[in-house]
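Take a careful look at the sequence and tokenised backbone pasted below. I need to know what the token row says about the fold.
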Amino acid sequence: MAVFTVQTAKADLDQLIARAEAGEEIVISRADKPAVRLTPVANTDEAAPLRQPGALKGQFVLPDDFFDPLSEEELRLWEDGPVFPPERPD
């Protein structure tokens, strides 16, 4: 791990960036205390894997009534259920 002061880092920033990109751990200190670590950003030039529509086809089954309206009881639980209890005045 290489440690540099803020002043040195300002003067040699391009070299420190190159060293960090090469895999070296670069730390910049302020008042003799480590402040930040200079690390390379992941390579954004690499193509992300393409998404394939239908890749999960057949792995999930929705019940036939999935899109049917909720019953009154289900609506009540949804709107007034334990996830969002009514606020109580203190």
Q: What stands out?
A: Residues 2-38 form a domain with the YefM-like fold fold (CATH 3.40.1620.10). The helical segments are 6-11, 13-21, 72-80.
